[in-house]
Design goal:
This protein is mostly helical and 202 residues long. The protein contains 8 helices and 3 strands, in the order αααααβββααα. The chain has a 3-stranded antiparallel β-sheet with strand order 2-1-3. A hairpin with a 5-residue loop joins strand 1 and strand 2. Helix 4 crosses helix 5. The longest helix is centred in the first third of the chain and has 23 residues. The protein is globular, with a radius of gyration of 16 Å. Bound molecules: manganese (III) ion (MN3). The site of manganese (III) ion has 7 residues, from helix 1.
Length: 202
Amino acid sequence: MAFELPKLPYAYDALEPHIDARTMEIHHTKHHNGYTTKLNGAIEGTALEGQSIEDILKNLDMSNGAVRNNGGGFYNHSLFWSVLSPDGGGSPSGELADAINAAFGSFESFKEKFSTAAGTRFGSGWAWLCVQPGGKVEICSTPNQDNSLMPNTGCGGHPILGLDVWEHAYYLNYQNRRPDYVNAFFNVINWNKVAELFAANK
Ligand code: MN3
């Protein structure tokens, strides 16, 4: 079974004005689709074919550039679309809010630290909120299409919130103003989905 490009659970223009329709369409149909196609090509006929994407990434040989870049790209974007929503924004509640407060002191402090991680990632990459076994949450950042499931990235645990800071994610609308894009992201975070990922992976 080859990996398939997931459908978005909302229209391309649903996240406007925070993320524009043209960016969403290109990002999904060109970038994410490209990672998906190239991942399938890279694993075809190998022992990785048929494994789940999480198993592939957890046991990844980091010198396998094709699977690292395209498997990461496939997984990261699938997660990214799922944690966005036109009905998003606000702040988390329940156990996830408790874990964020325990780790960072307050939601505002979390927001500041996450924004710093996203803003200071040099070049292309991702900012993450990850949950460790036991329920502790951590912020980290990875270059390119790496993520915390892969070995030895300096990021551990299971990603539950990710922000794509590649220029292709924001340049049409925000040009070089990455901090404005990061601020806008907070208006479309689907905290219900993040809480679901937290509960499933803590
Ligand atoms: Mn991207």
